[in-house]
Design goal:
The complex is a heterodimer of chains A (221) and B (439). Chain A has 221 residues and is an all-alpha fold. Helix content of chain A is 72%, strand content 0%. Chain A starts with 13 loop residues before the first helix and ends with a helix. With 439 residues, chain B is α+β, with helices and mostly antiparallel strands. Chain B has 3 domains: 99 residues, no CATH class; 140 residues; 197 residues, no CATH class. In chain B, 55% of the residues lie in helices and 10% in strands. In chain B, a hairpin with a 2-residue loop joins strand 3 and strand 4. In chain B, helix 3 packs across helix 7. The longest helix of chain B is centred in the N-terminal third of the chain and has 28 residues. Classes of the chains: A mainly alpha (221), B alpha+beta (439). At the A-B interface, helix 5 and helix 10 of A face helix 5 of B.
Chain lengths: 221, 439
């Protein structure tokens, strides 16, 4: 039955193999492999071979986050309407699509991050690379928003908007992990409402007019 | 009350936030009472209209921000016009039209979830923003193969929040409707059942089709076709019915003949459902009816359908018979069987409530007592409101700890008040047909 055609293909995609192997291990055992040595052995490769692709389990987890992010971007950019969206809609669309991508890996993410005390430590380090990339994306959105006047330019705080959007991403992730509603409808509602709030806060509001007026009174007195 | 409906961009999400919203409204309403009595001390001639109108504004603003089932309750309260003083009514009828929209990315996401394609992948065109708000969703216009379609999309999480929303509305309803707790719970269950049904779009499509087929023979009605392939638990696709809502249509000064034609179609539609199908479109608010250019009446939104149990039907409708008020014995028996009066009542209560209900049925049954009734008669409606006002302000009525009336009556009453009210808005005179046994 077993033919010998697949007798060591010239170049196996080890990177992919390692990523998949890692996810599978977490899914089946509910925890990380005990050591790189053991993990490499399970994949039938040498430990030093492993290090040519990844330096640690942390770097595997990190690149899983990044790949989720990358495929999210790929998908939203493939949508025709995306270009016509306002910045608010673009960010909404990003989060909705991202959550869909997360859904494909829910069990994996749950076993790693469901435990709050552990997640508290590991989540920031695991997502560092993802965060960098996300902030680039957010930065683009924000400058687009400033151009279109959707986002008000305010001194000092305006430079932290990307950080604020990141916090929102983290919030949504945590909300989604705990969401028990069918089809994660509650998460959808949470996204819709929190993004609306964030963009209302970032947009020109009564507060700006108030500050402007106060400044005027102060200066002309 | 010139306050404009504020465009609203955030919807309170969690239970806590919703609760907070209600509490802040409660505080405002309380404040309005304080203000009212303070003003009254200065100016004793001030009447309660202003107070009601202040309260209505606050309550409306709060409810419309809550969306979903709270909005539904607002709609329902606005239907039971006879229960609410005038000022509440005017504000609440607005709730029937306006609600804040869902973002387009969420619409896309909903489509992806249920059909695996964005709206553009299914329809030839699809409006980016909602053209209309439905109570628990919104409507977009689409075209496909030369047909214009209406696509209704439900807000996420509505069905989950129905019962918690109702719990929040409860203290409010207690105060607004002058009901005691027992009475209210008796009805709340019924309301909850209907609301949960209403979030089930699959059921809605099924019922819409059943009823529209069963009513297809009635002249001058128009029902949309429903499309299963583009419908799911959260999305309904149907034909776009073009035309005007009653208010807009009336502004075009239609002839009395067209008004009567539309009114008659409406009456026939309800007659057939109540007496023959024994299930009824129990949401007769103006937003669900569209009048077309040829004065045909389009009927949309079968979210709220009340199935009428046979024994309730047999027990309730004899009240509409002409001369019923004169037959004391028969009447007493009906009052008992429908729980209007029970043995737990004191003698004094029995006499009082018998009187009240007699007044009510002789007034509400009036269209049934004649062959043709002119609903344009505002005097008739004035009398209904007055009776409602009188009863809800009566000490005897407030004091009573009993729940009165069968729970099935809730939606049937609402349906008939709604129907009368629509006919009044239409200024129509119609043949008030009735089944043989009620003549």
């Amino acid at each position: 039955m077993e033919t010998t055609t697949t007798k060591k293909t010239v170049k196996k995609d080890y990177r992919k193999l390692i990523l998949e192997g890692y996810v599978n291990h977490v899914l089946e055992h509910g925890a990380e492999p005990a050591s790189v040595f053991k993990f490499a052995k399970d994949l039938k490769m040498k430990e030093e071979e492993f290090y040519t692709y990844f330096t640690s389990f942390e770097s595997i987890k990190s690149s899983i986050w990044v790949s989720i992010f990358d495929s999210t971007l790929e998908q939203i950019e493939a949508q025709e309407v995306f270009k016509e969206y306002s910045v608010r809609e673009k960010f909404l669309s990003f989060l909705f699509t991202w959550i869909e991508e997360l859904k494909k890996n829910r069990s994996y993410l749950l076993s790693l991050y469901q435990d709050k005390s552990k997640a508290f430590k590991s989540l920031p380090s695991d997502t560092r690379e993802f965060k960098e990339k996300f902030k680039d994306f957010a930065g683009e959105l924000i400058s687009e928003g400033r151009e279109s006047q959707e986002i008000a330019s305010r001194p000092v705080i305006a430079d932290r908007y990307d950080e604020a959007l990141w916090l929102q991403v983290v919030f949504i992730f945590k909300y989604w992990l705990d969401d028990r509603s069918p089809r994660f409808e509650k998460t959808d509602a949470a996204i819709e409402k929190s993004v609306n709030l964030a963009f209302d806060l970032m947009g020109k509001s009564a507060l700006d007019s108030f500050l402007d007026f106060a400044k005027f009174l102060y200066q002309t007195k | 009350m010139a306050s404009k409906v504020k465009e609203q961009e955030t919807i309170p999400v969690s239970k806590v936030q919703r609760a907070a919203k209600f509490i802040s409204t409660g505080a405002k309403v309380g404040g309005n009472y304080v203000k009212h009595y303070a003003k009254k001390m200065v100016n004793p001639s001030m009447d309660k209209e202003e107070l009601h109108s202040n309260n209505a504004t606050d309550i409306y603003n709060s409810l419309s921000e809550l969306k979903g089932s709270a909005l539904k309750v607002a709609q329902m309260m606005s239907m039971d016009k006879n229960l609410l003083p005038r000022a509440y009514q005017d504000k609440f009828t607005m709730a029937q039209y306006s609600a804040p929209p869902l973002s387009y990315p969420l619409v896309v996401k909903t489509f992806q979830k249920y059909f695996g394609k964005p709206p553009e992948g299914i329809f030839d065109t699809f409006t980016r923003s909602a053209v209309n708000a439905a109570s628990i969703g919104q409507v977009h216009q689409a075209t496909k193969d030369g047909k214009t379609l209406a696509v209704k999309i439900q807000y996420p999480g509505v069905s989950d929040s129905v019962s918690s929303d109702l719990k929040l509305v409860r203290p409010f309803a207690l105060r607004l409707l002058n009901m005691n707790e027992k009475e209210l719970d008796h009805y709340m269950e019924e309301v909850e059942e209907r609301l949960v049904e209403e979030t089930d779009y699959t059921l809605e499509v099924k019922r819409s089709r059943e009823i529209s087929e069963a009513c297809a023979h009635i002249p001058n009605l128009r029902f949309p076709t429903y499309y299963d392939e583009f419908s799911s638990e959260r999305v309904i696709t149907m034909d776009w019915i073009s035309g005007k809502h009653i208010k807009e249509w009336m502004e075009t000064n239609p002839s009395q003949q067209s008004k009567n034609q539309v009114g008659q179609a409406l009456w026939d539609f309800y007659h057939h459902q109540v007496h023959n199908l024994k299930q009824v479109h129990a949401d007769p608010h103006p937003g669900n009816f569209i009048i077309q250019d040829d004065s045909r009446l389009g009927i949309i939104d079968f979210g709220c359908v009340k199935v009428i149990p046979e024994d309730f039907y047999r027990g309730y409708f004899p009240l509409m018979k002409k001369g019923m008020v004169l037959r004391e014995d028969e009447l007493n028996q009906i009052f008992y069987s429908l729980d209007f009066i029970s043995d737990r009542d004191t003698e004094e209560e029995k006499i009082y409530f018998r009187g009240v209900f007699k007044d009510m049925i002789s007034l509400l049954g009036m269209p049934f007592h004649v062959d043709r009734f002119d609903f344009a008669d505002d005097g008739y409606f004035e009398r209904i409101f007055q009776l409602g006002d009188k009863i809800s302000n009566d000490k005897m009525f407030k004091k009573s700890r009993q729940a009165r009336g069968s729970r099935h009556g809730l939606y049937i009453n609402r349906t008939y008040f709604g129907l009368y009210n629509l006919l009044n808005q239409l200024q129509a005179e119609v043949d008030t047909t009735k089944p043989e046994w009620l003549k």
